[in-house]
């Protein structure tokens, strides 16, 4: 399993609410965020909480497909807005005019409000999420990170978003009404049998349920929905699992639990400075023998 080097660095997609049968290593900034050549200059000015026209802004593709960087604004992460003109969490927007004078709108992706964004900023090697893939998101909350995943997978992809809380679920459902590639499911992620008729086989599972048995929850959902050879990301809050142990010990114990369920970790990445005593683990499910997990460096 790779520990990044320390440094500064069934169902188909559609609108509306979906319900099941009942109730509810070190860090590093990744070498300049892994930017690729081919930037586009946009225009910036404050208006209605967004950034939509004024001084020049250089937008560059990130090495993770579907993610972008605003180079002139403290290298912030962006995703291309699937629903131009709409925000989800009152985030800033950037409007870019292409050479053919068409406009593209991007949304700022805040790593302090998204563990996946924090992992990208800290130099994760591969998030496995790209245009066209299908994702199951466990612990979707009100949908902030879900909306950015929706931007990344685009209209050809799909995000099945599971949230147990009816309070958070209201925000999730509201967001999904304008994003037809998001299927909100108000259910308990411990009981995937209740929404098995709503979710198709997926390429990636993201798990952010923040429960002591979260490894078991991920494994149970993987057995229903994750394709063999598919991938996962799980967010681990050490104090939720065992407050008596050092965070690094908790992370390793969770990795061992996952491996017993054929969920093979390839990267373990602490999320400081964005989240204290949090880490994300990325890996693969029922991988062919020739695709062995990366060894520690």
TrEMBL record:
One of its GO terms (cellular component) is ribonucleoprotein complex. The keyword Transport does not apply. SMART domains: Fibrillarin. GO terms for biological process: methylation; rRNA processing. HAMAP family: RNA_methyltransf_FlpA. Belongs to the methyltransferase superfamily. Fibrillarin family. This is rRNA 2'-O-methyltransferase fibrillarin 3. The lineage of its organism: Eukaryota, Viridiplantae, Streptophyta, Embryophyta, Tracheophyta.
